[in-house]
Amino acid sequence: MIFSRALFSLLALQICAVNAFPAYQSLAGLTREELDVVIPTLKFVPPPSPPGPLADDSTKLVNDAAHPFIAPRSSDQRGPCPALNTLASHGYLSRNGIVSPVEVINAVQEAFNLENSFARFLVYSTFLVNGNPITNLMSIGAKTSDTGPNPPPPATVAGLNTHNNCEGDTSMTRADFFFGNNHDFNETRFQNVAKISNQFGAGKYNLTVAAKLREFLFKDSLMNNPTFSMVSPRLFTAFAESVFPINFFVDGRDKSGQLDMDVARGFFQKMTFPPDFHRHDGAISSEGMDVVFNNFPIVPGANQGRVNSYKPDPTSATLSEPCTRYSNFVERNIKSLYPNPTGVLREALSINLQFLFEATVAAGDACTQVFPFGR
Questions:
Q1: Angle at 251 between CA 248 and CA 253, to 5 degrees
Q2: Taking every annotated instance into account, which residue ranges of this chain make up the domain Heme haloperoxidase family profile (predicted)?
Q3: Tens digit of pLDDT for each residue in 36-82?
Q4: Would you call 80 helix, strand, or coil by DSSP?
């Protein structure tokens, strides 16, 4: 008997549902029939409201006795974000790497002093693509080995390892997706950071080094990755990634803006705070990103299936267009992944999209709210 691809996919989802569909696996991209199989097996967790800013955002010890480093087990999830990996290894996040949006916002504020509206926008935009809106859970890496068969394309397998949202080309310490492993620490990439820090920062990573490294990474992907892409939202996260180590990995008592390479390796590779580490003094977000961009501005675009074939994409938001970034994300990314949600799935998506919009309002962006599934 010859099975059609659609029937085979539906049978695979039924098998997965019988064996308990992973509570944190993304539903994005599943067909109506596939969702009808999976959703009844999941317990709906209405998304709670996100937390507000810290009452006290002064610097304080975060590598404390209540948050000791414990190396992750082989079954624990870790992924492309060194900050979240570190938070999980110190218990600010669930040590297994399976998290909720509220948990992540609380953790990045408490341990790094990430500014509230910025934290909310990053977390909800990431969660809407990579998380499970029904169960309100997300993996900070990939799905575990015991979650059953992957959902058929175009579904997004859960977690931050998913290409071109949080993770993307030109990472500082992870290889481009085209070359295979886009989520584990890559020593060759880190040596590029160290080399350019020695050349332009006297061995420290700072804003000058960040701009030089961003230029190097762009040109490296341009000339070696035929699928290289640098459009929103990755354009935004790439430049944010350039300054995050300066803003969050430098001890909060140190006002120099210079990141030591041993400390950098601790975060990027070992997923641990240095001893006696204090968080930034005062809430902070992407300060310095404009400096890096002005030293090496990038027009959104992508290679066209061959190296050095970069073509600008006029439909992509630029760094100076936060409202276009927001509307494109909702109308293109979310609508394409969830074209016709119903029931509790539609309810959960709408609530999380409301939280995302409220983050843009709190950030001072006068954006027009988008309702992809109606009001």
A1: 125
A2: 65-293
A3: 777 777 788 899 999 999 999 999 999 999 999 999 999 899 999 99
A4: coil
From the DSSP assignment, how many helices (H) and strands (E) are in the chain? 13, 7
What dihedral angle (degrees, nearest 10) is formed by the CA atoms of 151, 152, 157, 163?
A: 180
List pLDDT tens digits, range 238-294.
999 999 999 999 999 999 999 999 999 999 999 999 999 999 999 999 999 999 999
- CA-based nearest residue to 260, from 206, 196, 199: 206
What tokens were used for 87?
């938070």
Structure tokens at 279: 């968080």
Taking each helix axis as running N to C, give the angle between helix 116-130 and helix 101-112, from 0 to 180 degrees, rounded to the nearest 10. Answer: 140
Task: Kindly give the residue spans of alpha helices, DSSP state H, lying in the chain.
Answer: 5-18, 32-38, 82-89, 101-112, 116-130, 187-200, 207-224, 234-248, 261-265, 289-295, 322-328, 335-337, 343-362
Cα 116 to its chain centre, rounded Å, is: 16
Locate tokens 């997004």: which residue? 156
CA–CA distance, 172 with 169 (Å, rounded to integer): 9
Give phi and psi for 99, each to the nearest 5: -135, 165
Alpha-carbon gap, residue 284 to 140, rounded angstroms: 22
Tell me what pLDDT residue 222 has. 98
**CB proximity list for 283: less than 8 A, separation 6 or greater:** 53, 54, 57, 109, 113, 114, 115, 116
Query: What are the tokens at 273?
Result: 């705070």
Phi, psi (rounded to 5 degrees) for 163: -75, 140
Report whether the peptide linkage leading into residue 40 is cis, meaning its omega lies within 30 degrees of zero: no
Half-sphere CA count of 143, side-chain side, radius 13 A? 21
Cβ neighbors of 7 (< 8 A, separation 6 or more) are: none
CA dist 229 → 84, 130, 186, 309 (Å): 24, 19, 20, 11
